[in-house]
Amino acid sequence: MASSDIGDWYRNIPMMTKYWFTGSVALPLVGKLGLVSAMSMILDFHSFIYRFQIWRPITALFYFPLVPQTGFQFLMNLYFLYSYSTRLETGVFDGKPADYLFMLIFNWICLVIIGLLASIPLLMNPMVLSVLYVWCQFNKDQVVQFWFGTQFKAMYLPWVLLAFNVIVSGGGWYEFIGIVVGHIYFYVMYKYPQDFGGRQFIQTPAFFYNYLPNRQGGVSGFGMAPPSNRRPAGGDAGRQQRHAWGQGNQLGGD
């Protein structure tokens, strides 16, 4: 019965989130079992540029070291990945898999560039934070909960997580990079064109739709910030307001 429940849960994970979640479980386990060297999966400038180990930007997104000191952080990363990626994919990007994939690829490319320049070997933490940040921007006024019943608007959640990591582990660098990348995507894709009447510099390539066509039932138009942050209390956002999606879990350390 338990295996059936887990199977049903896994099958119901949205497509993009499922692939991301699966890779984020599989590669750490592969590294833990010694089937592949962990050092071959991290992002390394010299190996990527001069040895043409072109797989490293991809494996660095999924790999996370499974050691006693980071086990809890890994589980929390998986929780935030599943929770916020699912909410974006089934909410703002519902019926628009191509647009959601483009957001993930855009954030990933930004992180790879920053990672190569700043010698950041692992991209899982900042990638999760970048997606969490985008969700929070789409749901600014939704109330989330942190530890000890603390409640605040979702727009503050990324910064609370950053501050929490700084206090608890002395980290925060990865979280800050994730916030920056998430802000770049949201600002260039939505805020600058709509709030300031500027040019839309990025958009989903047309060929994405050939492989991932839009489905009926999407909740907002592509290129338009959804009305979720202005919905009345009786809408979907109002029904979700008391979910404890921001519970005080550490989102990884440096």
Instruction: Note the overall shape.
Output: globular
Share in helix:
55-70%
Strand content: under 5%
End-to-end Cα distance = 39 Å
Low-confidence stretches: 218-254
Task: Please report the number of helical segments.
Answer: 11
Overall SS class:
mainly alpha
Element-level helix/strand string: HHHHHHHEEHHHH
What is the tally of beta strands?
A: 2
Overall average pLDDT: 84
- Largest sheet, order of strands side by side? 1-2
Largest beta sheet, briefly?
2 strands, antiparallel
Radius of gyration over all CA atoms, rounded:
18 Å
Short description:
With 254 residues, the chain is mostly helical.
Description:
The protein has 254 residues and is mostly helical. The protein has a domain of 169 residues. It contains 11 helices and 2 strands. Strands 1-2 form a two-stranded antiparallel sheet. A hairpin with a 5-residue loop joins β1 and β2. The C terminus is likely disordered.
Please supply descriptive tags for the structure shown above.
mainly alpha; 11 helices
Give the SSE layout.
Blueprint: H1 2-11, H2 15-32, H3 45-50, H4 56-62, H5 71-89, H6 97-118, H7 124-138, E1 143-145, E2 151-153, H8 157-169, H9 173-195, H10 206-211, H11 236-240
Antiparallel strand pairs: 1-2
Helix pairs in contact: 2-5, 5-7, 6-7, 6-9, 7-9, 8-9
